[in-house]
Design goal:
The chain has 382 residues and is α+β, with helices and mostly antiparallel strands. The protein is 36% helix and 19% strand. The chain crosses the membrane at residues 6-25. Essential cell division protein that stabilizes the FtsZ protofilaments by cross-linking them and that serves as a cytoplasmic membrane anchor for the Z ring. Also required for the recruitment to the septal ring of downstream cell division proteins.
């Protein structure tokens, strides 16, 4: 090999090495830039979920779904500081490095409400665990004005798939027409479980509607759904509790004006039926104060009753704690006695025992997947 050939090989090797090092440096630099551009301050939506939103493995006692005028224990999330503003995002170059690498994920940006959200909202109106859901598949779209309110003894709700392939709640005032309908009948409520006769009448009405529009109606297996209705009703009966705390007078009637002042100071307001109600900021009734004899409140009262509808109240333990404190304050201020529905005095130990039973009841509801005060609970205990 001549000196010229040897020199050429050395020069070629140096050029190849330089190109390799240059490409390696470019790859390294672009990877670092891309990581800075897309990974800065991006939270992990699985790992960073607040603890009170995690349901696996550990039960959390219910907390009020919103702050109210009293000071019960609040959810940990209500004391969290607002997130700091995100740092400005680096904009990656418009050209890409020439190497095989998996592209980094785009930054997470808030998604505005769209048709997917509307679909989810409409479909949430129906629940296979709570409803018997019939389906109607139309050969030709059915106008919303042609969909009747099917006669039924329990909650009846319909949603339809529009021409744009999105679900919406059916309304006779809507100008939409539907290629498919889902028509639901609730399985149970406080009037009891859905009966076979009621279900048959509902199915017949849906079938007649489908026949009139040359559509195909399909139904779940009726025997299985009737069995589910009975089981659901039995569960609801086991947790359907109304707690009553009574303030009995010691012979001298309570003046209503004094009662009104104590109630308003505690955050209660007068309702249209004359009772006093304590509400959350969103207007949901948490408990009520009325006459013990269930008559209207007059100038005086021989006794007062505080009622707490257990399964319909979110954060029931905190509400019960406040209810108990208010009941004891009311009895002390009026010179009355706090008693149960049988007239037996309620001491602090008695109230503690009620609270423990209430905690077990709420745990049972949580295990069933029917959160107290949730949409499902409000439907079932109505």
């Amino acid at each position: 090999m001549t000196d010229l050939q040897l020199g050429s090989l050395i020069v070629a090797g140096a050029i190849v090495g330089a190109v390799y090092l240059f490409n390696w440096w470019q790859e390294y630099r672009y990877r670092k830039n891309t990581q800075r551009a897309f990974a800065r301050n991006q939270p992990d939506v699985l790992m960073d979920t607040p603890k009170n939103m995690v349901r696996g493995g550990e039960r959390f006692e219910p907390a009020l779904d919103e702050p109210t005028r009293f000071e019960p224990p609040v959810s940990p999330t209500s004391t969290m500081a607002p997130p700091e503003p995100a740092e400005p995002q680096y904009t990656a170059p418009q050209f890409a490095p020439q190497y095989d690498a998996e592209p980094a994920a785009a930054p997470v940006v808030p998604r505005q409400r769209d048709d997917d959200d509307s679909d989810a909202l409409a479909e949430s109106l129906l629940d296979p665990a709570l409803d018997f859901i019939a389906e109607v598949h139309a050969r030709e779209n059915i106008p919303a004005s042609d969909v009747p309110r099917f006669p039924a003894p329990k909650r009846n709700q319909s949603i339809g798939r529009t021409e744009s392939e999105h679900w919406e709640q059916v309304s006779t005032s809507s100008g939409a027409s539907y290629s498919e309908l889902r028509i639901a009948l609730q399985l149970a409520d406080r009037q009891g479980a859905l009966s076979g006769e009621q279900l048959n009448a509902f199915c017949m009405a849906v079938q007649q509607f489908a026949d009139a529009h040359d559509a195909i109606a399909t139904f779940p297996q009726r025997a299985a759904k009737l069995a589910a209705a009975r089981e659901l009703d039995e569960f609801c009966a086991s947790v359907d509790v109304l707690i009553g705390l009574n303030v009995a007078s010691a012979g001298r009637p309570f003046p209503l004006e004094r009662v009104r002042l104590l109630a308003e100071n505690a955050g209660l307001s007068r309702a249209s039926d004359g009772t006093f109600v304590y509400k959350s900021d969103s207007g949901k009734t948490l408990f009520a104060l009325s006459n013990q004899n269930q008559g209207p409140l007059g100038p005086t009262s021989e006794g007062l009753r505080l009622l707490f509808d257990v399964p319909r109240v979110a954060g029931g333990l905190a509400v019960f704690d406040y209810l108990s404190d208010f009941a004891q304050q009311l009895a002390g201020s009026l010179g009355g006695t706090l008693v149960d529905d049988n007239g037996r005095p309620l001491a602090a130990a008695s109230l503690d025992n009620i609270r423990r039973q209430l905690a077990r009841l709420y745990a049972t509801m949580d295990d069933r997947g029917i959160a107290p005060g949730s949409v499902s609970a409000l439907r079932l205990f109505a």
